[in-house]
Design a protein that fits this description.
Layout: H1 7-23, H2 43-55, H3 74-86, H4 96-106, H5 109-120, E1 126-129, E2 145-149, E3 152-160, E4 170-176, E5 187-193, E6 199-205, E7 211-224, E8 228-229, H6 235-239, H7 250-272, H8 279-307, H9 314-338, H10 349-353, H11 358-364, H12 375-386
Parallel strand pairs: 1-4
Antiparallel strand pairs: 2-3, 3-7, 4-5, 5-8, 6-7
Helix pairs in contact: 1-3, 3-7, 4-5, 7-8, 7-9, 8-9, 9-11, 9-12
The chain binds flavin-adenine dinucleotide (FAD).
């Protein structure tokens, strides 16, 4: 099967490409979505680029224009996302795609006016306070308490794995407001200022020696009731709002394809340098290439359902699970290609030239099958909602 843009989408794709060429793509610049790539090459350049995207509404393409979005159709968003990822350009600000649509759909006009514009301009950083030490996959069992006291809630409890909490100004947090109700019905969604008295952030260092996530403790933290999004005890349903445009996972599919192309180039160059990799590793690279194609096709399935007005469910889970597990298989193949040099944190020579950053990538992809729902949970969804199998 051949996939082709309609004439309108082809024109839109060209518009995006021209914009990217003029404003982002510079020969020789490293992709920001390269695995193993630790920090943006130039923060100022990234900020200037994101500001330009924001000015066009392209940071929140699905949102209405009056809130700083671009009112794009599903397919226009998909093409935008494809082109930005092909160019290795940053596409969003931290957590914007998680908290922004939630406030837009469930927030009051005052909450939208207060939070959406500074979020789009990148003036405030957000973090997600959902997981707790005893509540991850079974998130609805969360225990962090919010007790009403006049015009405030008083919060006590703990969150964990909170990405970026050490840099965040605000947290969107799920709290238990009715401990006696069934677990999904006693949760409220609050916006919490991280500078509030009683908030403590402690770093958690990951296996790649990076400080990405944290533990966050709340001791009698006061949050005004007006910072609640949606109704009291309805926070579970507010919290499950996501931005549709992310669900196709095209970013992961494109990153995987570019990664496999780099591996293939490396293998070719090793052969022409008289140091060929073993045939079994060459076959591994070929397998990864085929799987990358499957990953992209799964993304197309998801976006085609969305474009017809449907809600991908099992399909989005298949995409997430397949893509995250593929990223781990790719990292493993890279380790094989790198041989003993795969132990080194920084690649050298030919490996550096082709970005065979095996050690870093191998460690960085471990969380891919945990964050945003583990592979087991995705398989449960595919089994029950997709195949109609009985719940275990
Ligand atoms: C890199 C990274 C960043 C993260 N950032 C954030 C963040 O910013 N904010 C936030 O709130 N959270 C964040 N998380 C947490 C993440 O959402 C949880 O780790 C995830 O939901 C899994 O929960 P858990 O770690 O408690 O594991 P558990 O739920 O305890 O699972 C442990 C194991 O049991 C399996 N399991 C659990 N239930 C079932 C079941 N019903 N059927 C079959 N198997 C099951 C799981 O698959 C897993 O293998 C992040 C995680 C990672 C890795």
């Amino acid at each position: 099967m051949r996939f082709q843009d309609t004439p309108e989408l082809a024109e839109w794709r060209q518009t995006v490409r021209d914009f990217v060429d003029t404003n982002w793509r510079i020969a020789g610049t490293k992709d920001e979505d390269d695995p193993g790539f630790e920090a943006p090459a130039d923060e100022g350049r990234t900020t200037a680029w994101l500001d330009k995207l924001g000015a066009r509404g392209w940071l929140a393409p699905a949102w209405p224009k009056k809130y700083g979005g671009a009112d794009m159709s599903v397919l226009e968003q998909f093409v935008l996302s494809q082109e930005l990822h092909e160019a290795g350009a940053p596409v969003s600000r931290q957590m914007l795609n998680l908290v922004g649509p939630t406030i837009m759909l469930h927030g009051t006009e005052e909450q939208k006016a207060e939070h959406l514009p500074p979020m789009l301009r990148g003036e405030v950083a957000w973090c997600q306070g959902f997981s707790e030490p005893g509540s991850g996959s079974d998130l609805a069992s969360l225990q962090t308490r919010a007790v009403r006291d006049g015009d405030d809630y008083v919060i006590n409890g703990q969150k964990i794995w909170t990405s970026g909490a050490h840099r965040a100004d605000w947290m969107f947090v799920l709290t238990r407001t009715d401990p006696d109700a069934p677990k999904h019905r006693g949760i409220s969604y609050l916006l919490l200022n991280m500078k509030s008295p009683g908030v403590t952030v402690r770093p958690l260092i990951n296996m790649a020696n990076g400080h990405v996530f944290n533990e966050v403790f709340f001791e009698d933290v006061r949050v005004p009731v007006r910072n609640r999004i949606g109704d009291e005890n309805r926070g579970w349903y507010v919290g499950t709002t996501t931005l549709d445009f992310e669900r196709s996972n095209i970013a992961r599919a494109i990153a995987a394809r570019k990664n496999v192309v780099r591996m293939a180039n490396y293998v070719r160059q090793r052969a022409s340098a008289g140091d060929p990799v073993s045939p079994s590793y060459r076959l591994e690279v070929a397998d990864r290439a085929v799987e990358t194609g499957i990953c992209e096709l799964l993304s197309f399935v998801v976006v085609s359902i969305q474009a017809r007005g449907g809600v991908p469910n099992m399909e989005a889970s298949m995409c997430k699970m397949y893509g995250s597990e593929l990223s781990q298989r790719i990292a493993s193949t890279k380790m094989h290609l790198a041989g003993m040099y795969g132990q080194e944190r920084k690649p050298r020579g030919l490996q550096e030239e082709h970005n065979i950053n095996a050690a870093m990538e191998y460690m960085q992809v471990v969380p891919a099958t945990i964050a945003a729902g583990t592979s087991e949970i995705q398989r449960n969804i595919i089994a029950t909602r997709g195949l109609g199998l009985p719940r275990g």
